[in-house]
Specification:
InterPro entries: FtsL/DivIC. The protein is mainly α. Helix content is 47%, strand content 7%.
């Protein structure tokens, strides 16, 4: 083989001997030696490269494999992503619950401090249980009638010593009247 024809192009064909000659200055490398070899303004019609029967299919094997891999990846990641989102929601719920419990603790500690004060305890005993200190005067309103007495004494019940059935008949007579 000669030096010019022994080398091969990337297409597999041997290089032509003319391609290895130097190009004279002022000429284009693609220009031929015939100046009017091509007509100006007119192109030869190109044959249709692809017809309807030689079109590439819309769905190829690579496309199917790619879609399958993407679906497999989505299904694989769906469970952990859902668990992560559920965990985030659970953390938010627990943080809100913790805040509520902290507020409740502060409220109960304030109530405990109030209850340890002896003045507050005495005030609550007077209001809720009607306790009085010795020397205080207790006024209790019963059915619109005022009953007064000293602390620790019972009202006089001798005037109302009727038996219960007479009291019942008297209240029925009042309601009827």
């Amino acid at each position: 083989m000669s030096a010019g024809t022994g080398r091969r192009r990337s297409t597999g064909r041997p290089l032509s001997h003319a391609a290895s000659r130097p190009v004279p200055a002022g000429t284009r490398s693609g220009a031929g030696s015939r100046p009017d070899a091509r007509r100006q303004g007119r192109r030869t019609p190109r044959p249709a490269a692809r017809t309807a029967s030689t079109r590439r299919p819309l769905v190829t094997g690579r496309g199917v494999v790619l879609v399958g891999v993407l679906l497999l990846l989505a299904l694989t990641l769906a469970g952990p992503v859902r668990q992560w989102l559920d965990g985030r929601a659970e953390l938010a719920r627990l943080a809100a619950e913790s805040t509520d419990l902290d507020e409740r603790i502060a409220e109960l500690e304030g109530q405990l401090d109030r209850q340890s004060d002896p003045d507050w305890t005495a005030q609550q005993a007077r209001e809720r249980l009607s306790y009085v200190l010795p020397g205080d005067r207790l006024v209790v309103v019963v059915d619109g009638a005022v009953a007064e007495g000293d602390a620790g004494t019972l009202p006089d019940t001798s005037a109302a010593a009727r038996p219960w059935y007479e009291q019942l008949l008297g209240s029925v007579a009042e309601a009827d009247g």
